[in-house]
Specification:
43% of the residues lie in helices and 20% in strands. By secondary structure, the protein is of the alpha/beta class. Helix 7 links the parallel strand 5 and strand 6.
Length: 200
């Protein structure tokens, strides 16, 4: 039995931090896991910038409310879920994901949690587990599932490598060049066909 594990941002929805950077006019917040492989370093960098500008959870959630799934994402996800189990594995946070999951038809998502002060300041973050995407894939495999994984960033590579089949989707030219062993797709139909073929 197969479980397809998908990244969220960049694959199904736009990058939240890029949208927030554009909304606030703070270009430093455009840095994502496509640019920085060390997630702890990236999040601490982001929290520092938020503090510097006096921005908190509410401001980010206001931006998230304006974000829609990428064109074709919900249809792709619906078709995939009609033909097997799908799990979204994301390094985003529960406080960010809720409105986006509603727009995607409430798929199952495993993500992390922000530490938020009473005044809304983001003071830290709690990762669900270490190496969360890889750990989850290995746990599913230990339960008897084969996994198929797809993502676009550095933090997706471990789960892609560990899965029976793994694909890059709308990734950067640099990542595609450094990991030519993974098929790379730009179109949902092509990714869907590859996932279906991998289950045979």
């Amino acid at each position: 039995m197969y479980v397809t594990c998908l990244d969220l941002e960049g694959v199904l929805v736009p990058e939240i931090w890029i949208a927030f950077a554009e909304a606030t006019g703070i270009p430093e917040l455009k840095k994502t896991t496509r640019d920085e492989p060390d997630y702890d370093k990236l999040m601490n960098y982001r929290i520092g910038i938020l503090k510097e500008h006096g921005l908190g959870l509410k401001e980010i959630q206001d931006t998230i409310a304006t974000i829609d799934p990428l064109p074709g994402a919900k249809e792709f996800l619906d078709k995939l879920r009609a033909n097997g189990q799908v799990l979204i594995l994301s390094d985003t946070f529960s406080q960010f994901a809720g409105p986006l999951m509603k727009k995607l038809g409430y798929p199952t998502i495993f993500c992390n949690e922000l530490v938020v002060a009473e005044d809304g300041e983001i003071t830290g973050f709690k990762m669900r587990c270490e190496n969360s995407k890889l750990t989850t894939v290995k746990s599913l495999q230990a339960c008897g599932f084969d996994t198929i994984a797809s993502g676009d960033s550095f933090n997706d590579l471990a789960m892609i490598k560990a899965s029976k089949a793994g694909f890059l989707f709308r990734s950067t030219d640099a990542i595609k060049k450094d990991y030519p062993e993974f098929q790379a797709f730009e179109d949902y139909d092509d990714l869907y066909d590859a996932i279906m073929a991998a289950q045979k």
